[in-house]
Amino acid sequence: MKESKFSQMVKYMEGIATIILSGIIILIVISLLYIFIIGIKQDNQPTQTLSIETNKDKPTKNIPIWSLGNIENIEGSSSVMVALQRKNNNSKGSFKRDDFYVPNNKYNYLFINTKDNSKEWLFKHNNYMINDKLLLSNPKQKNIELILYRVIKKDTNFNNKLDIKDNQSIALSKPNGKGYKEILEGIDKYIGQQLLDDNKLLLLYQKNTIGFSATIDIKTFSIIDESSIPKLVSQE
Known about the structure:
- The chain has a domain of 126 residues.
- Helices cover 17% and strands 37% of the residues.
- The protein is built from 1 helix and 12 strands, in the order αββββββββββββ.
- It has a 4-stranded antiparallel sheet, with no helix packed on it. A 4-stranded antiparallel sheet has the order 5-6-7-8, with no helix packed on it. Strands 9-10-11-12 form a 4-stranded antiparallel sheet, with no helix packed on it.
- Strand 10 and strand 11 form a beta hairpin.
- The protein is rod-shaped, with a radius of gyration of 37 Å.
C-alpha cells in the first residue's frame, strides 16, 4: 500500500531537520576545538604587564604641573626664549616643598636657536623663581645686548614660599641665554638699570634698606664699582 502524501512530507521534513541539526552540531564542535586550541597557545605565551612608574613619596595632587609660555623674540639674535611656568597646587597645612611655588611665575627659560633648532635651558633645574627678566639694548640700537634676570632663590621672609617679598639676586646672560652669571645677591628692592654707551650697565637697588649703585662691565659681567648712596643730612 502506497504511503500517503502526508507521510512522505513528514519524512521529507524530518530528513531536512536531521541535516540542519547535524550541521549545527558540527559547527559547535569546530568552535569548541578552536577555542581549546587558542587557549593552549595563549597559555604558552609569556604574560605581558604594563609598567607604570609611580612616586610613593609624593601624592598625585602634589606633582608639579609645568607649562610653556609664549615665544619671545630677541631682537638681533637667532634665538627665541620661552618661559617655563608652574601652576599652583594650593597645598595647605604643614610646610612642604610645593609651598615654595607661586602660580604663573617663571622658573626657567628655554632658548631655541632658530637656525639649527638646538635648545638649551637657562637652569639645569627648576628650583628658582624668576621674578622678572629684562631684554637690554643700547639706546642707539635695537639689538639686544644682554638679558637681566631678577631671581629669587631662597625663602628669606620665612612664609613657606618663594615670592616677590623675598630677597633677590641679579644675574646676566648673553642674548642666547649662554654665559649666565649672578652678579649681585641679597637685594631687597630693585630700583632700575641703565645701559650706558661704553659697554657698561648702571644698576640701582637696595640692600638691607640701604641704597646702592653699581657699574657692571657687560662684556665680562663683572662689577667695576659698587657703592652706597650718600645719606641726606637732616636739617632742623
